[in-house]
Amino acid sequence: VQLQASGGGLVQAGGSLRLSCAASGRTFSRYAMGWFRQPLGKEREFVAAISWNGGSTSYADSLRGRFTISINAAKNTVYLQMNSLRPEDTAVYYCAARLYSDSIYMSEYPYWGQGTLVTVSS
Fold first, then answer.
1. Mean pLDDT along residues 41-53
2. In the prediction, which pLDDT does 73 show?
3. Which of 60, 92, 111, 115 is the 20 to 30 Å CA partner of 82?
Protein backbone atom coordinates (compact mmCIF):
# COMPACT_ATOMS: atom_id res chain seq x y z
CA VAL A 1 0.00 0.00 0.00
CA GLN A 2 1.24 3.50 -0.86
CA LEU A 3 0.56 6.46 1.43
CA GLN A 4 0.56 10.14 0.58
CA ALA A 5 0.38 12.62 3.44
CA SER A 6 -0.66 16.22 2.91
CA GLY A 7 -2.08 19.25 4.69
CA GLY A 8 0.95 20.48 6.58
CA GLY A 9 1.94 24.12 6.67
CA LEU A 10 2.59 27.14 8.82
CA VAL A 11 0.01 28.07 11.44
CA GLN A 12 -0.02 30.39 14.43
CA ALA A 13 -0.28 29.04 17.94
CA GLY A 14 -3.89 28.33 18.82
CA GLY A 15 -4.79 27.58 15.23
CA SER A 16 -5.89 24.37 13.56
CA LEU A 17 -4.79 22.15 10.72
CA ARG A 18 -6.16 18.98 9.21
CA LEU A 19 -3.73 16.47 7.81
CA SER A 20 -4.78 13.92 5.24
CA CYS A 21 -3.25 10.60 4.28
CA ALA A 22 -4.46 9.05 1.06
CA ALA A 23 -3.83 5.35 0.55
CA SER A 24 -3.62 3.42 -2.68
CA GLY A 25 -2.74 -0.10 -3.63
CA ARG A 26 -4.17 -2.98 -1.68
CA THR A 27 -7.56 -3.10 -0.05
CA PHE A 28 -7.51 -0.07 2.22
CA SER A 29 -10.42 -1.27 4.29
CA ARG A 30 -8.26 -3.88 5.99
CA TYR A 31 -5.59 -1.47 7.16
CA ALA A 32 -5.28 0.30 10.46
CA MET A 33 -3.70 3.72 10.20
CA GLY A 34 -1.42 5.66 12.46
CA TRP A 35 0.05 9.12 12.69
CA PHE A 36 3.51 9.73 14.09
CA ARG A 37 5.58 12.88 14.28
CA GLN A 38 9.24 13.76 14.45
CA PRO A 39 10.36 17.13 15.75
CA LEU A 40 13.65 18.42 14.38
CA GLY A 41 16.52 16.65 16.07
CA LYS A 42 14.28 14.36 18.07
CA GLU A 43 12.96 10.84 17.80
CA ARG A 44 9.78 9.96 16.03
CA GLU A 45 6.83 9.59 18.38
CA PHE A 46 3.32 8.22 18.32
CA VAL A 47 0.45 10.64 17.80
CA ALA A 48 -2.74 8.70 17.08
CA ALA A 49 -4.02 5.53 15.47
CA ILE A 50 -7.30 4.10 14.24
CA SER A 51 -8.36 0.55 13.48
CA TRP A 52 -9.32 -0.61 10.02
CA ASN A 53 -13.04 -0.16 10.67
CA GLY A 54 -12.74 3.01 12.72
CA GLY A 55 -14.00 1.25 15.79
CA SER A 56 -10.90 1.74 17.88
CA THR A 57 -8.71 4.79 18.31
CA SER A 58 -5.58 5.47 20.32
CA TYR A 59 -3.92 8.75 21.21
CA ALA A 60 -0.75 9.91 22.83
CA ASP A 61 -1.82 11.01 26.29
CA SER A 62 -0.41 14.50 25.85
CA LEU A 63 -2.43 15.05 22.67
CA ARG A 64 -5.76 13.58 23.66
CA GLY A 65 -8.47 16.20 23.44
CA ARG A 66 -6.63 18.41 20.94
CA PHE A 67 -6.05 15.92 18.12
CA THR A 68 -8.67 13.71 16.48
CA ILE A 69 -8.05 10.88 14.06
CA SER A 70 -10.75 9.74 11.66
CA ILE A 71 -11.08 7.57 8.61
CA ASN A 72 -13.08 7.74 5.41
CA ALA A 73 -12.94 4.29 3.90
CA ALA A 74 -14.83 5.36 0.79
CA LYS A 75 -12.05 7.83 0.00
CA ASN A 76 -9.22 5.61 1.27
CA THR A 77 -8.16 8.50 3.44
CA VAL A 78 -7.32 9.01 7.10
CA TYR A 79 -7.36 12.44 8.71
CA LEU A 80 -5.73 14.06 11.69
CA GLN A 81 -7.56 17.12 12.94
CA MET A 82 -5.23 19.21 15.08
CA ASN A 83 -6.67 22.00 17.21
CA SER A 84 -5.20 24.47 19.67
CA LEU A 85 -1.80 23.98 18.13
CA ARG A 86 1.29 24.84 20.10
CA PRO A 87 4.87 25.57 19.01
CA GLU A 88 5.90 22.21 20.47
CA ASP A 89 3.63 20.52 17.92
CA THR A 90 6.07 21.59 15.21
CA ALA A 91 7.29 18.43 13.49
CA VAL A 92 7.20 16.34 10.38
CA TYR A 93 4.05 14.25 10.57
CA TYR A 94 4.01 10.79 9.07
CA CYS A 95 1.13 8.44 8.36
CA ALA A 96 1.60 4.70 8.50
CA ALA A 97 -0.44 1.56 7.83
CA ARG A 98 -0.66 -1.97 9.15
CA LEU A 99 -3.21 -4.74 8.82
CA TYR A 100 -6.33 -4.67 10.94
CA SER A 101 -5.67 -3.45 14.49
CA ASP A 102 -4.23 -0.12 15.48
CA SER A 103 -0.95 0.10 17.35
CA ILE A 104 1.06 2.78 19.11
CA TYR A 105 4.39 1.20 18.10
CA MET A 106 6.27 2.39 15.02
CA SER A 107 7.91 -0.99 14.53
CA GLU A 108 4.51 -2.57 13.88
CA TYR A 109 3.78 -0.44 10.83
CA PRO A 110 5.34 -1.75 7.60
CA TYR A 111 4.01 1.01 5.35
CA TRP A 112 4.89 4.69 5.65
CA GLY A 113 4.12 7.91 3.85
CA GLN A 114 6.68 10.59 3.06
CA GLY A 115 5.75 13.03 5.82
CA THR A 116 4.30 16.52 5.87
CA LEU A 117 5.79 19.43 7.80
CA VAL A 118 3.74 21.28 10.38
CA THR A 119 5.19 24.49 11.75
CA VAL A 120 3.46 26.31 14.61
CA SER A 121 4.64 29.85 15.24
CA SER A 122 4.38 31.51 18.63
1. 94
2. 84
3. 111
